[in-house]
Design a protein that fits this description.
heterodimer; A: 74 residues; alpha+beta; two-stranded antiparallel sheet; B: 142 residues; five-stranded antiparallel sheet; two-stranded antiparallel ribbon; 3 helices; 8 strands
């Protein structure tokens, strides 16, 4: 199935920009590159991983633990 | 993966550069702006209603709804004033200028985003405006 990367860009009345990228994979450099390519006339002042990232990371770890427990229980 | 990035358009300064700018003999009684780019300053002044603008190396003078104005680049950013006027006249003029700059940057960023997204093969899913903010959502198949 084809997966999609989403970039949401919010431009304030003062002209500052917040861009949020989300999509499959764990490479934040890819997301950063995509944002920089989309906004070549702006410089990055700050960046952070969003709560959605940590939620996904927690779910992945939990799923791995469940799988390991299932494997060891067989 | 989900990442959030704060970006500052080229042509305006980060906070540190604004703090460093101080009025000097070159522009007595001037107050600092966040504008680095002379063309952006010129365009924003025109949009604000300024006329008869005279542009020199790092300096712009002209007429405005607030009176005669002078802008001088000091370090990284421009400082400006309403000539022979009280401080609050300069502050009012600079507040109007700042709004004009913000509106210009917003329009230019939106236009640039549309062009770049098309070049990158991204699809504009939605564009909404509320409370002065404009939000665009793009998708790209991976």
């Amino acid at each position: 199935m084809m997966q999609k990367k989403t970039i949401t860009v919010t431009i304030s009345a003062s002209g500052s920009i917040i861009a949020e990228a989300s999509g499959p994979g764990a490479a934040c450099t890819d997301e950063l590159s995509a944002i920089q390519a989309l906004l070549p006339d702006a410089v990055i002042a700050d960046s952070r991983l969003t709560p959605a990232y940590f939620q996904t990371a927690t779910q992945t770890v939990a799923n791995q633990q469940l799988q390991q427990e299932g494997d060891s229980g067989r | 993966m989900s990442l959030e990035v704060l970006l500052i358009p080229l042509g305006i300064a980060a906070i540190a550069a604004i703090r460093e700018a101080r009025s000097t003999d070159l522009c007595e009684k001037c107050k600092t702006t966040r504008i680095k780019d002379q063309q952006l300053l010129h365009d924003a002044l025109l949009a604000m209603g300024a006329t008869n603008l005279s542009v020199g190396q790092g300096r712009i003078t002209g007429d405005s709804p607030y009176g005669r104005i002078t802008f001088q680049r000091i370090g990284e950013v421009f400082l400006g004033r309403v000539d022979r006027a009280a401080d609050h006249d300069t502050e009012n003029m600079l507040a109007a200028l700042d709004m004009s700059v913000g509106a210009l940057l917003q329009q230019r960023t939106i236009a640039s985003l549309h062009a770049r997204a098309a070049e990158m093969g991204m699809t504009l899913v939605s564009q909404t405006a509320a409370n002065g903010e404009v939000q665009l959502v793009f998708e790209q198949a991976t």
